[in-house]
Amino acid sequence: MGRNAIKKNNKSKILLSILTFVFIFLLCLVLPKSANATNEGKSQNYFFIKAITNTVALFNSPSNGEQDTNSEIKYSILSFLGIDTSNPISIITKEIAYLDKNKVSTNVNNEGDDINSIVPFKLVENQVSKSKDPDVVANLINNDLKQTLNKSKPRVLIYHSHTTEAYRTSEKDTSKTAFNADETLNVCAVGDVITEQLESKYGISVIHDKTVNNVPDYNSAYKNSGVNLDKYLKKYGDFDLIIDLHRDGVPTSSNNVLKTKINGEDVAEFLFVVTRQNPRYAKQKKLVDSMVGVSNKLFPNLLDPREIYYADWGINFYNQGRSNNALLVEVGNNNNTISQVKNTGMYLSRIFAEQLNGKK
């Protein structure tokens, strides 16, 4: 009875062994066709060895120096699924059918000695969006705005009620001179820049009156400039723009400078001044608002943060009661340099040209 049981048990073990070898043989036929060929010398061997040692107790194969057979089984299963963990591109091609369709090469040597073929990624120059410096904005000149210059019909009048309002000669100038009769160092210099730009770049005829209105009597400045303004209005009728060009004033002890940086250069900020009680205020405010919009669109930060200074009456309404198009513009203050405010004159020319020659 005991011997028969032992014989039956031995027969069962032999039968189980035979079935196991048949199973392994079938695996040998199927797995190599699906697994990556570069992995078969290493991954498949350990898969078979582990399968045999776990199934048939008679075989107890040594590890041959490999420390983690479990990881090899995982590796072989992934290979069976067509995924090579040493090559991330193979994973991407599984997820993105387009890449597999276009035969992206994923042939990577398993030993890490060489990458046989990986399609390089190339960027064409015009496909790259290059960020600009934060102070680089719209072009200074808009050639589309140029018209034929007609000197017989001036469209812009620039004058200065406080003609001798001056600027620093340079950053090193510590003289704190607030007024200067030299036209190259006071508000007249800014008016010259605007005049030249409007006429040469945009075909807009300009009268730039440099009459000194604040000397000898500073308090009579607006009265004197009003007389000159009436003279021009009588001769030419109205203008498209009448600009009383000033600078802001700060105490000589102050270090406040109204400047910003545009297109890589220091530029003085500017603002508009209006009088709310003058009978032409509504139309003047509409005109000013339009130019504020142009300035903020083309040259952000060029305007003083206040943008518009509102006075109720001013002195004689700052002569704004004489025309719907009469404005007062302040460029920088007495701490700005002459180069900074002349730069502003260039940008103001573009703003005025957009207002006068641009599409309405």
TrEMBL record:
It holds the Pfam family SpoIIP. It comes from the Bacteria. InterPro entries: Spore_II_P. NCBIfam families: spore_II_P. This is Stage II sporulation protein P. It comes from Clostridium estertheticum.
